[in-house]
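User: Teach me something about this protein's shape.
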Amino acid sequence: MAVADFNWDDLRVLLALDRCGTLLSAARQLGVSHSTVARRLAAAEGALQVRLFHRRGQSLVRSEAAEEVLTHAQRIEEEIASFSRSAGGADARLEGEVRVTAPLALLTHFLAPHLPAFRETCPGITVTMFGDLSLDSLLQGEIDLGLRISRPVSDRLDIRRINECRFALYGTPALAARIRQAGGLGGVPYLQTTGQEMPMPEALWMSVLFGEQPPAMKAGTMPLLLAAALAGVGVTALPCFLGDPQAGLVRIPVQPEGPREKVFVVTKREQRGVARVRALVNFIDRAARAERARFAGEAEAA
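Assistant: First, the predicted structure itself:
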């Protein structure tokens, strides 16, 4: 890569694009215009002589060439934050409590298993987890950090996209065999998610698959749907990172395929300078990228 003409200030722009996923969202996070972000991206790609992002409609997806660039960019960002901490006060210390809310599936099958590694690097930080609290609790200061499988809408939040999250249909081997023998889903019991203010993409997808057929059961959390699916109550939509590792379930191919959603980590903008929150956000980002294949459904258990 050529770097002679690269403007190092554009690293902030590249990180914002990678985390937000669109030009408009990155512009809002940076507090600049849409055209400024587009111009800085074009300049960075020109200076480095590589395509850093692929366009998919309105969304931007990092290219293979961007992996090294963004890894260095994040390291520089963390070093700058470390320098800032050295001159700061209480908010600059890597100690204290960080309160996290997320869907239970993300807490139990993603964040909690990674906490030992986080504790090794930040032993002074206590992580307190709450399942599925609303983002109002974040805006009101009751929560420090949120994980969401859907993009929140608020101009008071810093929003970072950390992964794609694919959903698929799962059921017991017996139910999968029944579907194969019947050549379709007609009459097969299914489980539906409920309790959301607006229907989630996976719930809408299940409605498309099963039409007017009523569900055998509804549940408000993924772990409940998982438990019922393992018990053979019915088939259900699960994120692949949750469904694929289950020995008692198999992924059932159907058309149309399940939705591909995104996972976001969310904080209040006022907490940008709080070292303990920033440390956990950056750790979650790295952990999620290390598990990209699992979230995308590309590491299906045998």
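Now, about its shape. The longest strand covers residues 157-171. Residues 244 and 300 are 5 Å apart (CA to CA). If you'd like, I can walk through any region in more detail.
User: That's plenty for now, thanks!
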